[in-house]
Amino acid sequence: MQERVSCRNVKCSYYTLIPTQPGPLQQFGRTEVIENTLNPDFVRKFVLDYFFEEKQNLRFDVYNVDSRSSNISKHSFLGQTFCTLGEIIGSAGARLERVLSGIPGKKCGNIIFTGEELSNCRDLTTMQLCANKLDKKDFFGKSDPFLVFYRSNEDGTFTICHKTEVIKNTLNPVWQSFTIPVRALCNGDYDRTVKVDVYDWDRDGSHDFIGEFTTSYRELSRGQSQFNVYESLSNRTCFQQVTLLSFKVESEYTFVDFIRGGTQLNFTVAIDFTASNGNPAQPTSLHYMSPYQMNSYAMALKAVGEIIQDYDSDKLFPAYGFGAKFPPDGAVSHAFPLNSDCENANCVGIEGVLEAYYECLRTVQLYGPTNFAPVINQVAQAAAGVMDGSQYFILLLITDGVISDMVQTKEAVVNASTLPLSIIIVGVGPAEFDAMEELDGDEVRLSSRGRVAERDIVQVALWGCCCL
Q1: Contact 161/149 with Cβ under 8 angstroms?
Q2: Confidence class of residue 383 from pLDDT cuts 50, 70 and 90?
Q3: Which positions ≥6 away from 211 have C-beta within 8 Å?
Q4: Spatial distance between the Cα atoms of 343 and 337, rounded to a whole number of angstroms
Q5: Hey, how many other C-beta atoms are within 10 angstroms of the C-beta on 178?
Q6: Global pTM?
Q7: How far is CA 58 from its chain centroid?
Q8: How far is CA 25 from the centre of its chain?
Q9: Strand 331-333's sheet: what is its strand order?
């Protein structure tokens, strides 16, 4: 992530950027000096590694240059501000403006941050090739040809970046189309040499060389044309050709692309209030409200929520509980609002969610069973109403045990896999969560009633055991 900085209405000549990413506070860098101005636009940019799953705190100090000394203490302090890298990325147009503070009774001006993702050539290219009149290499047949693509390196060597499938017993093969990242093919340099070798496959691995040719990404991007018909020559000169049949490029969009494009995150919380958590009045309970430290539920909520809230512009978070008897009638509910407002379950910020959670513990009766499907379906219904790409929903489910309605939950997840929705399930406590891993389709895509999920939308993590 590349960051540009400007200041307004301050008597400054340079500023210092100090990120407090995991580890002790350390100075990251300084801008150049801009003389005699209240509204500097600094030219120097700062490149920071961006991690969505981390809260990356930043502090910005502004100084007026009073001497040539590199010692900050020798210059006049004009103000400072704090933010996170996520707040910059999550702001409209990745532009965040903050008020400088730090000098009592004095207006210190404003500071403006603009972030942009550095281009790393994320395009994917799909191409298909064929060949004609290849050299015959098999004594009792023709050839079993395949192609090997090599990317050229700075030192003149070559690195294999793709192999096609083998087409058996032919001198005129048509290989299947394949997809390869552009950076793997040319490392983002469109004119870099791409070498292609043609081989005849042999069972013992001693493949026979048929021929080779060179090209580049720029040449290939012309698509099917006379420019992309290559004569492939071997030691034994013969007329043989490799032809590009098709070439297509697609962009591989990232999380930052969607956020910069205006997509807003909607964060919803659901907390397990089943009796298996233990009596909240007892220290052995996972819901125990200790005067000295937060319980496991509160810690998980705060850790995940403080990261995601930077990308939620209104900071209004619907928060629900499930598996408890909810007043006034004492009926068991699996999607009751933590703030007791059935018309509006929104809480203001993560601190508001925590306050509602603590208050809810005093009014509900922990019960059961542990049903996930109702709250998943409720959030899915909201996501189904916004399919234009402007919003993306994230549901955080925090639980202590095995899901009681696994069949219904699987169906709810499969149905929701077509929607702009992701689900984070955090397991707390000592229970076994192996059955829950089935919902996480990293290796095997989740299915229900013969339907396979369109995509993997569930991430399962154990609090204190792994990173989200």
Answers
A1: yes
A2: very high
A3: 134, 135, 197, 198, 232, 233, 234, 240
A4: 9
A5: 16
A6: 0.60
A7: 20
A8: 26
A9: 331-333, 324-326, 365-366
| Higher-confidence position of 384 and 308 | 384
* C-beta of residue 433 within 8 angstroms of C-beta of residue 427: yes
C-alpha of 84 from chain center: 17
Query: Which domains does the chain possess?
Result: 2-116 (2.60.40.150), 124-250 (2.60.40.150), 263-462 (3.40.50.410)
Residue 424 near residue 268, CB atoms below 8 Å: no
* Cα–Cα distance for residue pair 361/321, rounded to 1 Å: 10
Tokens for 35? 């003389």
Return all residues near 56 (Cβ < 8 A) that are at least 6 apart: 19, 21, 48, 50, 84, 85, 86
Length of the chain, in residues: 468
Q: Measure the CA–CA gap between 409 and 416, rounded to whole angstroms.
A: 10
Residues 6+ apart with CB under 8 A from 254: 117, 122
Q: What gap in Å lies between CA 310 and CA 68, rounded to an integer? A: 38
Tokens of 41: 């636009």
Query: Tens of pLDDT along 90-137?
Result: 887 778 899 999 888 888 899 998 887 655 567 899 999 999 989 888
Residue 436 CB contacts under 8 Å (≥ 6 apart), including other chains? 402, 403, 425, 427, 460
Tokens of 284: 């052995």
Which token pair is 238? 């013969």
The three-state DSSP-derived secondary structure of 125-188 is: EEEEEEEECCCCCCCCCCCCEEEEEEEECCCCCEEEEEECCCCCCCCCCECCCEEEEHHHHHCC
Q: Are 7 and 40 in contact (CB under 8 A)?
A: yes
Distance CA 393, CA 269 (A): 11
Residue 326 CB neighbours (<10 A): 23
- Residue 437, CA atoms < 13 Å, CB-side half-sphere: 7
Residues 354, 302: contact at Cβ < 8 Å?
yes
- DSSP 8-state symbol, 335: S
